[in-house]
Amino acid sequence: MTMTGTATSFTAPEAVPATPSRPYDPRYDPLLAPDPGAGRAYAPTWWVASAGTPPEDDGPLVQDIDVDVAIVGSGATGMSTALYLAQEHGIRATVLEANQAAWGCSSRSGGQGQNASGRLKRSQWIARWGFDTAKKLDAEIRAGFENFKALTQQIDCDAFDGGHLYLAHRREKLPVLAAEAALMRDTFGYATRMMSAEEVRSDYCDERETVGAMFEAEGVGIHPLKFTFGLLRRARALGVKVHTSSPVQGWQTIDGVHHLRTPGGTVRARRVAVCTGGYTGQALSPLLKNRVMPILSNSVVTRELTEAELKATNFRSKTFLTDTRTLRFYYRLLEGNRLQIGSRSSVSGADAEAPVHLKLLTDAIARKFPPLANIRIDHSWWGWVDMSHDMMPRITQPDASKKIWYAVGYGGNGVSFSTWAGKRLAERIAGRDAGREVFELPIYDSPLPFPNVMGLVESQAFAPFRRMGQRMLYKWYWLKDEK
């Protein structure tokens, strides 16, 4: 980064010019690569295979343009921000997407829309910020979930409003779940309850590892790509422009105007919103460098289960499930009677294709649903999760002197809250946040925290050392989870 007068400039290394549907790169790593490529094909996910024909977009940028608001990233956060800017504030934004529409998290996630945002539970909110703030944060997250639920009823996205089962995989996890269930019920007013292993197996599915569960009624499973395609169609109908194959490869701010360089032209924008999730490259903006730790998550979808297999596993619901491992598994029965299961994966993109990560999931299927051991896997993929360093997202303007906002850091719990984050981000961009109490909540009133280990994390060269720490943590988590 160089600074000259009122101009702040950054130029990323030159990238290959955009070519529609260049091959998917399974080894891409946002911690190390300057950008996610240009015009690359989707990951080979079940969502891509079953979403139907993608909606029309505006293709690659082919000339320099001037816009009021530019949004970087066309996932659920970026598209909902664009939608609400147009729908509620009369602002027609221009969305820049490096590859295909909803190419990142929104075409790879588990599709589990929980009443949550970030990794922390409500008991942890109280411990960190106190009871009053936790109550206000709960009201905000709940409003976001209800907004998401309403959208799933308006958009064709295979929505299943069946709640969420949090399964204890070891007996010592039950008291922790019971305490959280009581807190959610008695303090926050939810109808959360505990269930025995026998109730889970008779009423939902014969999951063999569970020793009990916490059930929360707030949970909607969706087809995340169909959902985001629905947001995109709505936004474009209101005049939003969506330019695919248009990665931001350089960013220069001159006299308050942001010059976003793409392979086909430069976007000169008065205001910029960054909605890149787990695909936030280190080179995109100094405001986001090292603020998010990208974590890989793997997912598979099986062939269709036969009637005999459905009977043997006693699947009676498409309610989604999560277990209590630190490196948790998330799973559910999809439309069409396919089993989906996911969990954490490789530490780095270079190792993402190693067979051991697929085996982690197929072994889990065999443990949890023995009749499905060795079932054929039809789709296997991985994607990057945007983990913030304090486990909670930020929807904020990190520097009041710069007209730049971002909404990132969901930590794998952004399926439902990302659309509400887009709504709040739109309000902030439109200048409707001043003096409003809701924007004093922790997820709104501060930037993403910055890790600092003897000043070394600030350096790109320190990235491999963060990965070494992650490997050690994974080994420790495995010992805690399994031993």
What does it look like?
There is one protein chain. The protein is α+β, with helices and mostly antiparallel strands. It folds into two domains: 2-109 and 224-292 and 389-462, FAD/NAD(P)-binding domain (3-Layer(bba) Sandwich); 159-217 and 294-387, D-Amino Acid Oxidase, Chain A, domain 2 (2-Layer Sandwich). Helices cover 29% and strands 23% of the residues. The chain is built from eleven helices and 21 strands. It has helices at residues 46-50, 76-89, 122-129, 131-154, 174-186, 197-203, 224-237, 307-313, 355-368, 417-429, 463-482, and strands at residues 2-4, 7-11, 65-72, 94-96, 112-114, 160-161, 164-167, 193-196, 212-216, 219-221, 241-243, 250-254, 257-262, 265-274, 292-304, 320-323, 330-333, 338-344, 377-388, 394-396, 404-408. The strands form three sheets. Strands 1, 2, 3, 4, 11, 12, 13, 14, 20 and 21 form a ten-stranded mixed beta sheet that branches. An eight-stranded mixed beta sheet has the order 8-9-7-16-17-18-15-19. The longest helix is centred in the N-terminal third of the chain and has 24 residues, at 131-154. It is globular, with a radius of gyration of 22 Å. The termini are far apart. The model is unreliable at 1-19 and 453-461 (pLDDT under 50).
Write a concise keyword list for the protein shown above.
483 residues; alpha+beta; FAD/NAD(P)-binding domain; D-Amino Acid Oxidase, Chain A, domain 2; 2 domains; ten-stranded mixed sheet; 11 helices; disordered N terminus
